[in-house]
UniProtKB/TrEMBL annotation:
It comes from the Bacteria. It comes from Mesorhizobium qingshengii. This is ATP dependent DNA ligase domain-containing protein. Pfam families: DNA_ligase_A_M. InterPro entries: DNA_ligase_ATP-dep_cent. Residues 20-84 form the ATP-dependent DNA ligase family profile domain.
């Protein structure tokens, strides 16, 4: 069965995270919000609006093939860390536009 794209929830930037078990928090990284899907049609990576970017992300697609999952949807941010260990929004964009989005390690989280 082909799994459908699920639009991601949009995080809200706040000064102080709320406390309690009813809240989920995520760190804001500078990258591209993406959804990786594994199903009978193969592996796809779509941007946050559902556009297919699979051909732009060769390495993450190869790594996803090693997960051994028959069906999965993984929501995350595709990032590139700079030498200081910080996410750098310009790096994934440069890798995509230059066709090199396969030369660095990208991890969903």
């Amino acid at each position: 069965m082909r799994l459908k794209f699920i639009p991601p929830l949009t995080p809200i930037l706040v000064e102080q995270p709320r406390e309690g078990d009813d809240w989920i928090h995520e760190v804001k990284f500078d990258g591209y919000r993406s959804q990786l899907t594994i199903d009978e049609d193969g592996i796809r990576i779509c941007g946050c609006k559902g556009h297919d970017w699979t051909s732009k992300y060769r390495d993450p697609v190869k790594e996803a093939a090693n997960l051994g999952a028959e069906n999965a949807i993984v929501d995350g941010e595709i990032i590139v860390l700079n030498e200081a260990g910080l996410s750098d929004f310009g790096e994934p964009r440069m890798a995509i536009t230059s066709g090199l989005a396969g030369g660095k390690s990208h991890e969903p989280h």
